[in-house]
Amino acid sequence: MNSKLSAKVAILFCGMLGLSGCNEWLSEPQPAKPDVADFFIAGGGTVAVQVVNAAYVPLQWEYGSTYCPEWWIGDVASDDALKGGQNTSDMSAAYELDNFRISNNNAVLLDWYQLNFHGIARCNFAVEQLPSVAPDAAMSERAKERLTAEAKFLRALYYFRLVRVFGEVPLVTYTIQTSDKWRQPKASVESIYAQIFRDLEDANAGLWPLSELRQNPADVGRATKGAAQAMLLKAHLYYAQWSREHYATAKAWGDSIIADGEYSLEEKYADNFSIYNENGKESVFEVQYAEEASSDYGSFNPHFGGTRGTFTTILTRSRSDEVPKKASGGSTDGWGFNKPTQSLYDEFEAGDARREASILNLYAIDSSLISNPAEEIYMGSAYLTRKYAIMDSALNALWDGHATRAPINIKLIRYADVLLMYAEACNETGDFAAAKSTLNALRAKRRAECADPATQLPDFPYLNHKTAQPYADSQDGLREAIRHERRVELAMESHRWFDLVRWGAAKEAMSAYKAAETPQVQAAMNDFTEGKNEYFPLPQYELDLSGLEQSEKWK
Fold first, then answer.
1. Do the Cβ atoms of 305 and 61 come closer than 8 Å?
2. Which pLDDT belongs to residue 455?
3. For a 10 Å CB count at each end of the chain, is N or C smaller?
């Protein structure tokens, strides 16, 4: 696999991943119609690699019937970001997510549901077919085991992305090829997580460590043993909201990935979001994107499959031509979505260099550069996200290829995320010393970039700058400090909403956020309904197809 999972990845099996459409009266083989096994007769190892490559591809998709990157949910639904865009009508589906006005026909949710199930279907196909493929020059027996493990890792990831958005969804671990298998019941959250745990444990057993994959540059970007361990840490940490003993399991997986020593923090925080530092030492797993010289906008709608570069860059850049040019040397303007809130901006401690790496204040550059304030200032916010939008201000470089196709990879798991999840698990299991040392090690690394490292970002326990009181040197105080650190370290990386929900803190956080926001935001935003808004409704289109019942709270 090329490190960019380029457009040349062969996706030969799309028609085999869903229904075959066969009826009893068509039971005889059709002339010239290939059987699945025919693809593996010659060069089976090469085709096996292509099958697994195809399972990665839906991670790249950010457009179906509308734009559907994960940050519409992870950032915009939370207190970290406003929808943004030209006006409130621009991307109405995202406006619904931003303001708890969600309908069963929300286009973002429909696309999110479909793209992840596309990925699951491809993983199921790979897991089923690979055992029968004989090793050859293109695939050793050990490589075959690794490829199967990659498919299981991806299946777990796709299901994890679904269960934390929708809760109960169908659980299918085989290829559906007949019409009698089309309608599947919803599975419980418990059973979905059980499958996620099984797949990730199998993946951990078969995946290779990062250091071994790096010996072949073409394999960089594939799932690693560390990625499986990080996902096991993450999934158990999420499940601990229902069963606290999973904190101990999460901690054990954190111990494992840290002990392996395969990952470390970048010396410069902003390097995590530079196109010149993809798959770096802090990257545990990232979506691989390729540069696209010409647009394929609309050519694949509504069936996905055309995205090779990321939409995130164009979606989140300033709408004014001169702003990206002034900020980092480029000239391509954007659409101004996913705008950081004042609440997020104020969360950063004084002197924390991560704020400037994460958020661009338009007025801090030069307000005269804003060509159309009515479109650029959204509900009072003059902030823009820098991550993945302005790629490398230090090198004065901004990608200027086709507007809708940027090549920068997007990190789903960074080692900083791993360390903060581990600190949380340690704190919840009573290992306060490990929790403190892990939190302080991360802060020490980020402190080195501060203007005054002697006083800024001190070790825990330190002053809560929002209350002007020190964090208590206790489990509760440490929990509060770790949650603060997650918000600023991972700002605008699609984590915040899911963190609030799993902590049971969404109602309190969203109510406080609404109360402090601009009158425009307050007027647009419905109150958060506890016990309902933690999950989103299943798309009506899918209910009509499958006969599923809508979640009780969304009927």
1. yes
2. 93
3. C
pLDDT at 177: 83
Upper half-sphere CA count for residue 526 (Cβ side, 13 Å): 15
Which amino acid is present at 116?
A: N
- Decide if 531 is inside a domain: no
DSSP character string of 415-446? HHHHHHHHHHHHHHTT-HHHHHHHHHHHHHHH
Name the E strands within 216-323: 283-287
Ranges of residues in the chain with a pLDDT under 70 are: 1-39, 41-43, 292-307, 321-332, 366, 390-404
Contacts of 474 (CB under 8 A, 6+ apart): none
* Cα–Cα distance measured from residue 266 to residue 245, given in angstroms and rounded to the nearest whole number: 32
Which element (helix H / strand E) includes 490? Answer: none
Q: Three-state SS across 362-377?
A: HHHHCHHHCCCHHHHC
Q: How many domains, in total, are found in the chain?
A: 1
Distances in Å between the alpha carbon of 296 and those of 3, 7, 301, 307? 21, 12, 10, 8
Distances (CA, A) of 494 to 183, 204, 268: 31, 25, 21
- The answer to the question of residue 377 being in a domain is yes
Distances (CA, A) of 190 to 164, 169, 240: 12, 11, 11
Answer whether residue 451 is part of any domain.
no
Residue 404 is predicted with a pLDDT of 64
Candidates 151, 78, 112; CA nearest to 339 is: 78
Question: 234: how many CB neighbours lie within 10 A of its CB?
Answer: 23
Range of the domain at 345: 312-412
Query: 170 preceded by cis ω (within 30°)?
Result: no
CB atoms within 10 A of CB 270: 21
Is there a domain that residue 481 lies in? no
